[in-house]
Amino acid sequence: MIGRYLRALRRRRGMSQQELAEELGVSKQTISNWEVGRKVPRMKAVEKMAGVFGVSKNSILAGLPVDPEDKDLSAGKVVDLNDNSLRLTYKGHQVPREYIEIIEKLMRCDIDDRRAQ
Q1: How far is 6 from 31, CA to CA, in rounded Å?
Q2: What is the 3-state secondary structure (H, E, C) of 90-109?
Q3: Domain HTH cro/C1-type spans what residues (predicted)?
Q4: I want to staple 3 with a disulfide (CB 3.0 to 4.6 A). Which of 35, 50, 75, 85 is the partner?
């Protein structure tokens, strides 16, 4: 999810992988690895990307879509994490409640970051 979000951010800025790599001080291959999900960026790179794209670090870590209307990035169904009547799964495995709580904390931090901007 992070990779798709990074690709979308980069494309929205009209940047090539090479241009983003130069901006972040990494190789083009590193950008490619992040975008296809082979590797995950370190926190220092996430901080730099947040500055380059004007988004919060938490939104990058959570892989939030650039535009909720972007059909390429959104799942098509809207589910509230607080809806306990639903059983959330990932690749066929139930998502533990602890993971959902982590996601909720990330979202609260992101909302706080956006308010502070």
Answers
A1: 9
A2: ECCEECCHHHHHHHHHHHHH
A3: 6-60
A4: 35
Residue-range domains of the chain with CATH: 2-116 (1.10.260.40)
Confidence of residue 78 (pLDDT cuts 50, 70, 90): low
This prediction's pTM:
0.56
Other C-beta atoms closer than 10 Å to the C-beta of 7 total 19
Residues 44 and 28: their CA atoms lie apart, in Å, by 17
Looking at every residue in the chain, the average pLDDT score rounds to 81
For residue range 11-44, what is the model confidence (pLDDT) as tens digits?
Answer: 988 999 999 999 999 999 999 999 998 999 999 9
For tokens 């409640």, name the residue.
Answer: 97
Which of 86, 80, 4, 92 minimizes the C-alpha distance to 40? 4
Cα–Cα dist 117/113, whole Å: 6
The CA radius of gyration of the chain, in Å to the nearest whole number, is 15
